[in-house]
Amino acid sequence: MTEIKKYITDNGTTAYKFRAYLGIDERTGKEVKVRRAGIKTKREAKLMLSKLELEFSKRGFNQLSTSTFEEVYKKWFETYKTTVKESTYSKTEEHFTLHILPEIGNIRIDRLKTIHVQEAVTKWFNEKLTRYKRFLNYVYRVLDWAYKMQIIDDNVASRVIVPVNKEQIKTTKKNYYDLEELTQFFKCLHDIDNPQADMYFRLLAFTGMRKGESLALTWNDVNFETSQISITKTQSQGEHGRLLITTPKTDTSNRTVDVDAKTMQMLKAWRIEQHKQLLMLGFNSIKPDQLVFASIKNKMHNPIKPRNWLQLVITRFDLKQITVHGFRRTYATLAFESGATIKEVQAQLGHANYKTTANIYVEVTKKQSRETANKFAKYVNI
Measured between alpha carbons, how far is residue 294 from residues 42, 301, 303, 364 in Å? Predict the structure, then answer.
């Protein structure tokens, strides 16, 4: 039992002291003993001892309990890096550095309140940062880790009210071209006289592959005999913006896609044209791992390059605004309209989640149902 003792100090005044055994530190396995002296009253000594015992029982003297959110995030990030690809943790680190830490990084983890996180989320939403939900999810994950590590007693991010971006939902649903719009796009694209861009968007619109998958394609992925393309890799960005080739997004993304005859003929023509262009630039492009789409330095294009091609055409010819990813949605929509099944489109796109493909199918069939009703009423004109 701990005993609080009274003693006389060197200057002749009365003071109190104690030595106490608090328990075993779970991190080190060592006994934790504390000693305090120079306390003015016995009551103050008792209060000090009770506080030390309470802190130890709740925190195990965990120093991180009084650290800032940023300091705890750095501990979490050390573990997180071992669970994901470099391209993933690099992007995550960027989100924290640019958006999350400036808002709550300096707040002590044990004093962080739901209102602090709520205000940060609201600010991101008002600034029209489309990934505000992702930022909140990262905050939640750091706090969830801190809770599991017994650094905090509660995950305050769990009670945040997430704003709904209705405009973003509307834009996403319209992020594709119908058949007439796609036909017009290719006419305009051809007019800018860029064979590589012509081939690039043809491939996206007629296979549904992702931007990263297309930028990582090499000619040995293309099988001209079977009219198929093997998708086994994707472009991503590592630390400091370094371009990487990594495995596809999900297991189902690793797939073989079927390609129509005309697109395959265009690929053959593009391979010949690319060889001529690269020879003039001093490169030998006759090699299996030659990129299908390459920069003038014969390296992978920066991921913003397709967007630049797309915006040039849209702006010059005043076309409907869609994103590069919109060509993937375009493929799915037109595939369903042409009679493809959900399973066929899911396999071609490499969707891991059946629901993702089914949602597009439902929208297409709703539109077809309306058209069927109109056709019937027009025919049965009574």
Answer: 79, 6, 12, 35
Partnered with residue 230 across adjacent β-strands are 256
> Can you tell me the distance from the alpha carbon of 100 to that of 93, in angstroms, rounded to the nearest whole number?
10
Q: Beta 234-237 vs 222-223: how paired, if at all?
A: unpaired
Please name which of 233, 217, 266 lies closest in space to residue 350, comparing C-alpha atoms: 233
Q: Which two tokens stand for residue 204?
A: 């996206």
Looking at CATH, the fold of the domain delimited by 69-163 is given as DNA polymerase; domain 1 (1.10.150)
User: How far is residue 364 from each of residues 179, 335, 358, 360, measured CA to CA in Å?
Assistant: 13, 10, 10, 6
| pLDDT on residue 61 | 45
Nearest to 135 by CA among 182, 179, 196, 73: 73
Residues 211 and 308: beta-carbon distance below 8 Å: no
With respect to CATH, is domain 172-371 assigned 1.10.3470.10?
no
Supply 194's token pair. Answer: 């860029």
Helices (H) and strands (E) in the chain, counts: 15, 8
**CA 96 vs CA 91, 128, 164, 298: distances in Å:** 9, 17, 22, 33
Confidence label for 23 from pLDDT (cuts 50, 70 and 90): confident
- Which amino acid is located at 132 in the chain? Y
0.70 exceeded by pTM:
no
Least confident residue range of 88-102, 159-173, 178-192: 159-173
List CB contacts of 38: < 8 A, sequence separation 6 or more: 9, 15, 17
